[in-house]
């Protein structure tokens, strides 16, 4: 079944499938338990109340580990490619890795500190995860263009940059609208004054989150060859 995953491709494949499952399972359990409104809850809302909080925490912790493993493997692949064709400065690749790992730490904080229990810590972790994650995808997209066409096809570069652009555009209203919400809660009424801010920020949050998933999906092909032409 997984025979097409040559080299290190299993790592991003696991990351994509596991993280997708984490979001979907937590959402389904939270909705079926009546803990959140089915229409656009925050991702963290689906992991706040038991039993979904345990599922969310466990699965997102492992997603953070898989993300770190994927980023480090990507760093080593680019490093090996760069030794052959010298298309980018090593520092650029290193900065991308460091920012990505900081984002993984933020993801771990989100998994272990629920938004209603310690909202300041949770929100700080989410900010780290999203901001560092978006910057990571932007830097990796630039590296991809620099290594094109020897190591990446032009279509792959365009897909990565498009995902990065959408995520960058979404993260600004996500943060802005979330900062305008006066209270942290799970249940929302459309007549409440902050409801529009909640809907906009939730849409942007889900957009950025699945943007990360689709971005890492583009790594699977690269990882099959481990930096070999």
From TrEMBL:
GO biological process: regulation of autophagy
Membrane association type: Multi-pass membrane protein
One Pfam short name: Frag1
GO-annotated cellular components: endomembrane system; lysosome
InterPro entries xref list: CWH43_N (IPR019402), DRAM/TMEM150_Autophagy_Mod (IPR050911)
Keyword Membrane listed: yes
Keywords: Membrane, Transmembrane, Transmembrane helix
Membrane-crossing segments per the record: 12-34, 54-73, 94-113, 125-143, 163-183, 195-217
Listed name of the protein: DNA damage-regulated autophagy modulator protein 1 isoform X2
Organism: Delphinapterus leucas (Beluga whale)
